[in-house]
Amino acid sequence: MSLHLLLVEDKPTTREQLLQFLAQTPFTVSCANDGLEGLNRCKTESFDVVLVDHKMPLMDGLALIKSLRQLPAYRAVPIILMTTLDSAQVDPLAEKAGASLCLSKPINGARLIELLDDLARTIAQPQQSTA
């Protein structure tokens, strides 16, 4: 089973750095340059995880997360918000928008890889029957 991750990041240098980390995970990675492009990609493609920058042109990360959570296919998909702002201020906003997790920038590559490896294992496990 191939796992797909959408990286939504407007800054090319940050995107390249994140792509180096993501290459070490089991995910096939697609990129969007802003929130609006990310939303449009999610409407036409299926992703198992969405990694979103907070501050972007056209549509910021929080607006993107709110919009994704309104799409039936993305109600339960892990969405991770990345921010340069104080996480104590952003965490409540991210949670309210529907983010699964908020990470502070600069991103700790080892932590991101570990987190995504754990998510990949969780996604790949067959659903347990409660009967």
Instruction: Note the gap between the termini.
Output: 26 Å
Regions with little confidence, pLDDT below 50 for 5+ residues: none
The residue fraction in helices comes out at 40-55%
CATH evolutionary superfamily: Response regulator
Rough outline: globular
**CATH fold descriptor:** Rossmann fold
Strand content: 15-25%
The CATH class designation is Alpha Beta
Contiguous helical run count = 5
Task: Briefly note the structural class of the backbone.
Answer: alpha/beta
| Main pleated sheet | 5 strands, parallel
Q: What would the average pLDDT be, to the nearest integer?
A: 93
Radius of gyration: 14 Å
The total of beta strands comes to 5
- Biggest sheet, spatial arrangement of strands: 2-1-3-4-5
Helix and strand arrangement:
Layout: E1 3-8, H1 12-22, E2 27-32, H2 35-44, E3 49-53, H3 61-69, E4 79-83, H4 87-97, E5 101-104, H5 109-124
Parallel strand pairs: 1-2, 1-3, 3-4, 4-5
Description:
Pfam families: Response_reg (PF00072). This protein is α/β, with parallel strands linked by helices and 131 residues long. It has a single domain, classed as Response regulator (Rossmann fold), CATH 3.40.50.2300. It has helices at 12-22, 35-44, 61-69, 87-97, 109-124, and strands at residues 3-8, 27-32, 49-53, 79-83, 101-104. Helix 1 links the parallel strand 1 (3-8) and strand 2. Helix 2 runs parallel beside helix 3. The mean pLDDT is 93.
List keywords for this structure.
alpha/beta; Rossmann fold; globular; Two-component system, chemotaxis family, response regulator CheY
